[in-house]
């Protein structure tokens, strides 16, 4: 724990030193000290681990030295080759209790040799046997092998197993041995990088009864070695096949030998030996399978061969046939037979030398380590050559560097002079002075950089210090000649221009820059202003401005005398600035900020996409009145903050250095912030109120467009408009951070200490507010944001849909929308009628049919645009319904009145003075009480009410009516009057006719008028009148008038049809208003007679009576 605390303290000290070095601009030595302290902290923290690592490395190194010394002693004793790879190295792995080893005369014996290591030398090969009990030392030994022979640590591994141990039932020792061998082989694989050849020796096969006798007569013992070629996948099959072949070979050979043997016991054992090997097969293959089992991982070795060898000492022998039988009955003690006195022939050393050692040259090697060795040799050679070349190069570079400095110095003078001669160097144009001066500056900067970072090979004895002084004096003098007058003239022009433009905030800032430059003060302010001004005015491009600012910075750094100012200009400036309100200037600055003075087109979000939806609204005013300044958006409100400590206010103070030449106090900033805040709120609300007032319905909208837009779209244009406007005028408030946790300790404290706890809690709050300035700033900004949001919302409180509650807004709009949907369904149903306009005509007769949407004209909506939509919808709907109803009425009028009159009445006499006579049945049908005209009057005209002087039918209300034409009223009045006159007497057409002669010309003898039952004959005598009834007594086909003169010459005139009497009256009536008719004879006076009532236009016998009936073509007055 102490170690962790100490490391933490050191790290904190290091970080503090780094922070102070950055803040106070300390020298680089502090950074190095901080780095050393941090390293020390790391060392302190990891010291136990580092200590343990060092100890392990030390012990490992000690072991490596011990093994290397041992090898050198062995190599010296048995005279091994100096090339370590000329000697084949093998590693022995065996069970702990195995006593089989190589012949003792092959063992290398040295004094002070480690007890756990045995080394054997067999025909030029070294065999290392590290005891299995010393696993840690064995791991060190394996690492040493990889260190001393990196290309090929060993040529193979010899695994020695005892045959007797293999058949025992104690499996734990065998499993431990297998695990140890596997770990050892895997370590070799990881260290060497290749699969190590493994040679498996099964020692002590002569411990099985009969093996020694079986091998005694064998001359070729090579069959006891099985070569598996390192193919681990087929090793079991290969081993089984080789084992079976060995059994067959030994058994066949022993059958031949038995016939030659006289000893019966020896014979039996000769035949028993192969059987013993066959019994051993299952244990051998099982052991090999377990050895190759790495749970799916790569096998880290190649099993090259398997060898059966005999033991030098086989004091006990076992019969496996008897052993297996005893195992079946769970007897653990195996019967032991008598020891054989035969000398072992298949010895371990001999088998190794004959069958394993010849394959040592085929052991794999680590090719990457071989490449590394070659690379190291090449690197040593090239390093020597590189050192020689480097020394030569250093000398040459030192010489050329100093020569280049002299050449550069001379070239600077020459280039600067040539540039002045070829350029138009004009103080009034700052851009012309940049190029020559930047040439000097580049040389000056390059020289200083060269002095500060000159190459390590440069020799100081060849450089001159006078060159640096000359560079600085020349550069400073030229800057004074060019920069000083150019800056003075430029800033004075800026003052004059902004003064003329009445941009007084710019004037204040330029004046501050002007005075700062004159007094060699506020370098950062002057540089910042000039870099911005030169670019904005277009005097210089970006590259020229960058160069000019660099020159001006150097002018400051090198120092100059104070510049004489233009006092007359400053006096004029001061007189104008004295009249200005700084608060207004600051607010003007806020509005002119680049992030706020850009204009935003919100029409897509406000009005919708014209390509996808019908635009219902438009923005009246100028062509650019739809644009919204970014200042009046919620995004701008997020960036604005009028809290004195806010970043915005501090940036405003920095940018307006002329107004704030001394840092303003908290009180001053608070006053300015309040003024800006309330000015912003007023302008914000004023702008959006005007913007909202400019919104109106789009001209030339159709009813279909309005209905589809409001009821069919996924999002209503009206709600989209109000939702968009709501985003700008109803700005969500933000959560105000809490100064201290909301839980009160005083409330939870006992009553006895509650007062003290409350005081302590108050002190904690006070301390927290003083310490956490950022939290206080967040609280102040959150409160300010909520205040602005609330005041803006209050200014729009009279607009329910804009600033009202969401639920109220939704309810009002849903009520409006439901009425529109009901109206649309009503119109759709009416428009689908077979007879156009009939449903409309029937529906408007009762208010119950239109109650579902009557609120559109009965209700006064609070929002202007919604009311405009309702008025437009009602207006367009009224117009549509009126057109449909008038169309229906006109069609009905044409079919019920105009067509019957035109077809059966108007073309005939007496309604037409020419043409055929009117059929009396047609006349009766037309004027009948159940005629189509009468039905039209009862079915249609009954719905029209007399209002003032017009008959009207209301559609939705009295403001929307359909008016009959005055001619229609006159027509039906005349129609009824004529019907009464025509059929007023028992519904029959009849008129009493009295014909009375008045006179007869002396030239005539008689006058005769005959028609049906009427016969009038008049001669010069008494005046006898004739009476009859028309048309009853005039039903013959014609009326005949005959005049006979004194010579008995006749003049006859005939008038066809039942209307012949009216034709006679129409042709011979003397006057319109008289009842007298005159029948001329040969164009002279003839007979004169009277017919009653023919001079009365209301008489059925007067043809003019029928001309009084005229049918208007149009029923209702046209739409206005």
UniProtKB/TrEMBL annotation:
What name is this protein filed under?
A: Type VI secretion system membrane subunit TssM
Membrane-spanning ranges:
5-23, 29-47, 378-396
Cleaved signal peptide residues? none
Limits of the Type VI secretion system component TssM1 N-terminal domain:
135-380
Superkingdom of this protein's organism: Bacteria
What does the UniProt keyword field contain?
Answer: Membrane, Transmembrane, Transmembrane helix
Residue ranges of every copy of the Type VI secretion system component TssM1 helical domain listed in the record: 889-986
